[in-house]
């Protein structure tokens, strides 16, 4: 590290000012992040595995399945995405199971920035403020998934999506900068993206900060990046883009939830968590609900504070849901593809 | 109802095929005992499970005679490889009947099914597998060539891990070529009796393992029987003392695994969330009815408040209740007398000025229950910091420097277990080196493995169970060391 950079001031984000205090510099930020207690990987994984053994049956299972749907960001993030594909995704989001209209709607649809207008259009009145069963539009931004672009490109990527009607921005952090120890740079960028989320009326699109934990590799890094994302102003911290393996895992999500719990203890403020990628089975998703409820508390099981980023999970949940009502398993022919 | 009130997920006791009455298992058969039968109950409901025979002195003698005959005629003459085959067979049968054994254990002992299912029974199988492998390799046990078995082993086990303690005792004894008379605890005989059925299923030669049920008098008759060569006891220090006295001056080889007051030391650089998990696991695992429990938390003063706050939050998520429910974290206390001791010592703790805290929990009205409890402001001279409570009761003490932590950890008549929590590897080694405890866990607690020796210093007993060291308790060096002519004798 060049010594000159250590004294460089970083953006005066209000949360960081309040918690770290003084003149926010690269050095003070680094000291703060490095002072956070370490994570013992064996112990963390053992705790996650233990939470995974909870047996969720009957009424608890029914509630869990509906909750998973309510917390889902139904996602399509492919190079091959078209307006037609997005329209079809939105239709699925609005009516997940045409055979059972009691099925709740998902929280949001998550698309690339250029698809936002199509998503907004397809949602129609379901995207109006105050609509019952409102579905948000989330857009990935900041040169998703790699994040390898200039700051200005990332910022216009963000502001374009917000202007097109995105309610939520899923940004990626600069993992290269993080891994080389340039925490200030990562921090400043999150602060700038947050500003780019500002709408003309002064409100902000919700900002989810994707850590891409599969590239950060260690739980200590995940924990540090979680704190960094929150200190810089993220509304949510999110595990992964879904483009890197491993994506979301239970231990990674547990360690992020522990940070969110500690932040709440410290400031009273509630931050959201979004595991994304790799969660395909209801059984696995239920383990996440258990982990949330037993780590931060049940009040986190609402769309403002917890989301699943998933595409194929929804259909498995619908199959399980049908099984609970009918008493027998149907099959993939009885759920719609989007 | 909220999500966290998970809907009941009970394991069914209906999968058990229990008899109404169980006799003594002597010479490969169930026979009625001459003592007065007693009943075993479920500590969670106080409901009757089965009637069990009580072995009189005469019955114990019959069991020892059967074991001696099996030793002379069969087991001591069998090759190690063949003994190993029986042990492997037993291990596989335990795995096959794991679910049944887990349900029986939770029913009879009161421990949560998730522990009997995920810890006790898998370890039982692991113990038999491990020692099965040793049976034909005794010359590598470190006692020189051709070590010899001892003869008949008298084994008395406690109620806290009924089947696991049976495995810890029987597996090495049989691998080394001894025969066994074992007495399970009077409150938890059920899984030992199911195990006797497994031995029949495994076709183990008659008399190699005999199981006599009963209370203290039966145990006393067994360890004092003139024809036993080896006594192995796990239980309280008081009874251990009596046994040491009564075996003194005899040729009986003795191992004792007694009480403890384990220190769990948390340094300020510890991985804090995992340390909290480790503290919980250290003292609330099996309702704290664990001889190696981390019942004294020694936390560095600078992080005391933070650790206690996190610990209380974590305790509030523990689920106390029906041992057979798969989501239960803390089950029932094994017996009314144990419950009484916990209450008495906890009351004394309060009178001595310590601050008592338990999370809100609805304890069932029937059965024996004690809420998870933390005492803060505990002084080193307090009885709850010195006496073994053997329950879900944690005493929190503080220290300022590593030297003080070591001194306080060692300041106990016991010396069974200790835990160290720090991110610093060098500190783990330096501190572990100075702790007078048979087992020291680093950044974990209450982890067991058949390859790892377990046992105590000071009033926690002597001898080791598990690993190569565990075999030494059941072997003697060959009288003809260096000669291979007598090889058949030991194997």
Automatic annotation (TrEMBL), chain A:
Q: Which InterPro entries match?
A: Aldolase_TIM, DeoC, DeoC/FbaB/LacD_aldolase
Q: Which UniProt keywords apply?
A: Lyase, Schiff base
According to UniProt, this protein's pathway is: Carbohydrate degradation; 2-deoxy-D-ribose 1-phosphate degradation; D-glyceraldehyde 3-phosphate and acetaldehyde from 2-deoxy-alpha-D-ribose 1-phosphate: step 2/2
E.C. number: 4.1.2.4
Per the record, what is one GO cellular component?
cytoplasm
Native species: Arthrobacter subterraneus
| UniProt-recorded Gene Ontology molecular function terms | deoxyribose-phosphate aldolase activity
> Which family does the entry's similarity section mention?
Belongs to the DeoC/FbaB aldolase family. DeoC type 2 subfamily.
Q: Which reaction does it catalyse?
A: 2-deoxy-D-ribose 5-phosphate = D-glyceraldehyde 3-phosphate + acetaldehyde
UniProt record, GO biological process: carbohydrate catabolic process; deoxyribonucleotide catabolic process
Name listed for the protein in its UniProt record: Deoxyribose-phosphate aldolase
Q: Does the keyword Lyase apply?
A: yes
> Top-level EC class, please?
lyase
Coiled-coil-forming residues are none
UniProtKB/TrEMBL annotation, chain B:
* UniProt keyword Cell membrane present: no
Provide the Aldehyde dehydrogenase domain boundaries: 30-476
Q: Which UniProt keywords apply?
A: Oxidoreductase
Give GO terms: molecular function aspect only. oxidoreductase activity, acting on the aldehyde or oxo group of donors, NAD or NADP as acceptor
For this protein's source organism, the top of the classification is: Bacteria, Bacillati, Actinomycetota, Actinomycetes, Micrococcales
**What is the species of this protein?**
Arthrobacter subterraneus
Return the similarity comment. Answer: Belongs to the aldehyde dehydrogenase family.
Which InterPro entries does the entry mention? Ald_DH/histidinol_DH (IPR016161), Ald_DH_C (IPR016163), Ald_DH_CS_CYS (IPR016160), Ald_DH_N (IPR016162), Aldehyde_DH_dom (IPR015590)
PANTHER family documented for this protein:
ALDEHYDE DEHYDROGENASE-RELATED (PTHR11699)
UniProt-recorded name of the protein: Acyl-CoA reductase
Oxidoreductase: present as a keyword of the record? yes
């Amino acid at each position: 590290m060049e010594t000159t950079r250590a004294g460089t001031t970083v953006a005066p984000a209000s949360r960081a000012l309040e918690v770290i205090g003084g003149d926010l510099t690269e050095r003070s930020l680094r000291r703060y992040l490095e002072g956070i207690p370490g994570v013992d990987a064996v112990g963390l994984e053992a705790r996650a595995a233990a939470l995974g053994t909870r047996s969720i049956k009957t009424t608890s299972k029914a509630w869990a399945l509906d909750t998973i749907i309510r917390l889902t960001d139904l996602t399509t993030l492919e190079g091959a995405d078209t307006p037609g594909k997005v329209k079809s995704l939105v239709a699925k989001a609005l009516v997940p199971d045409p055979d059972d209209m009691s099925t709740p709607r998902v929280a949001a649809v998550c698309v690339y920035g250029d698809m936002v207008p199509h998503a907004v259009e397809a949602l129609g009145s379901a995207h109006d403020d105050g609509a019952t069963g409102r579905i948000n539009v989330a857009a990935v931004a900041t040169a998703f998934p790699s994040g390898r672009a200039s700051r200005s490109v990332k910022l216009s990527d963000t502001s374009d999506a917000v202007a097109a009607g995105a309610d939520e921005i899923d940004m990626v952090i600069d993992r290269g900068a993080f891994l080389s120890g340039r925490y200030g740079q990562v921090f400043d960028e999150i602060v700038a993206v947050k500003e780019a989320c500002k709408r003309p009326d002064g409100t902000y699109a919700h900002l989810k900060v994707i850590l891409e934990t599969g590239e950060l590799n260690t739980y200590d890094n995940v924990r540090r990046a979680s704190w960094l994302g929150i200190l810089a102003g993220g509304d949510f911290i999110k595990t992964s883009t879904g483009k890197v393996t491993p994506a979301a895992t239970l231990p990674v999500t547990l360690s992020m939830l522990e940070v969110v719990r500690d932040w709440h203890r410290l400031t009273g403020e509630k931050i959201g968590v979004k595991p994304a990628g790799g969660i395909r089975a209801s059984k696995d998703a239920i383990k996440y609900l258990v982990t949330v409820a037993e780590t931060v508390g049940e009040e986190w099981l609402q769309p403002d504070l917890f989301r699943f980023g998933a595409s194929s999970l929804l259909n498995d949940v619908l199959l399980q849901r049908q099984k609970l009502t009918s008493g027998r398993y149907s099959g993939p022919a009885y759920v719609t593809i989007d | 109802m909220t999500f966290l009130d998970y809907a009941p997920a009970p394991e069914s006791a209906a999968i058990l095929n229990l008899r109404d009455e169980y006799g003594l298992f002597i010479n490969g058969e169930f026979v009625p005992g001459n003592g007065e039968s007693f009943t075993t109950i479920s500590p969670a409901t106080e409901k009757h499970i089965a009637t069990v025979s009580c072995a009189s002195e005469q019955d114990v003698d019959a069991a020892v005679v059967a074991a001696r005959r099996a030793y002379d005629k069969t087991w001591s003459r069998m090759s190690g490889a063949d003994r190993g085959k029986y042990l492997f067979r037993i291990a596989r049968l335990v795995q096959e009947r794991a679910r049944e054994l887990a349900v029986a254990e939770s029913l009879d002992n009161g421990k949560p099914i998730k522990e009997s299912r995920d810890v006790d029974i898998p370890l039982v199988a692991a113990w038999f597998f491990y020692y099965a492998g040793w049976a034909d390799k005794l010359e590598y046990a470190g006692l020189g060539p051709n070590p010899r078995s001892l003869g008949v082993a008298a084994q008395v086990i406690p109620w806290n891990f009924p089947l696991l303690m049976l495995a810890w005792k029987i597996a090495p004894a049989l691998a080394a070529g001894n025969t066994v008379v074992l007495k399970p605890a009077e409150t938890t005989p059920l899984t030992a009796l199911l195990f006797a059925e497994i031995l029949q299923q495994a076709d183990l030669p008659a008399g190699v393992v005999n199981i006599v049920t009963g209370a203290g008098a039966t145990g006393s008759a067994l360890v004092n029987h003139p024809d036993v060569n080896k006594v192995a006891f796990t239980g309280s220090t008081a009874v251990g003392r009596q046994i040491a006295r009564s075996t003194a001056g005899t040729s009986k080889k003795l191992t004792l695994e007694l009480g403890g007051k384990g220190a769990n030391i948390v340094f300020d650089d510890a991985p804090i969330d995992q340390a909290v998990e480790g503290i919980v696991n250290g003292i609330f695992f099996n309702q704290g009815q664990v001889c190696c429990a981390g019942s004294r938390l020694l936390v560095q003063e600078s992080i005391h408040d933070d650790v206690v706050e996190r610990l209380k939050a974590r305790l509030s998520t523990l689920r106390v209740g029906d041992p057979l429910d798969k989501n239960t974290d803390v089950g029932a206390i094994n017996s009314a007398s144990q419950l009484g001791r916990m209450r008495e010592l906890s009351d004394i703790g309060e009178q001595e000025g310590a601050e008592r805290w338990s999370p809100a929990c609805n304890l069932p009205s029937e059965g024996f229950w004690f809420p998870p409890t933390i005492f803060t402001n505990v002084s080193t001279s307090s009885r709850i910091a010195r006496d073994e409570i053997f329950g879900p009761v944690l005493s929190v003490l503080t220290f300022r420097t590593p030297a003080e932590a070591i001194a306080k950890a060692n300041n106990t008549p016991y010396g069974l277990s200790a835990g160290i929590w720090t991110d610093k590897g060098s500190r783990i080694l330096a501190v572990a080196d100075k702790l007078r405890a048979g087992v020291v866990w680093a950044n974990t607690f209450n982890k067991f493995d058949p390859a790892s020796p377990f046992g105590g210093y000071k009033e926690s007993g002597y001898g080791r169970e598990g690993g190569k060291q565990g075999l030494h308790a059941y072997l003697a060096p060959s009288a003809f060391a260096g000669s291979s002519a007598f090889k058949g004798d030991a194997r």
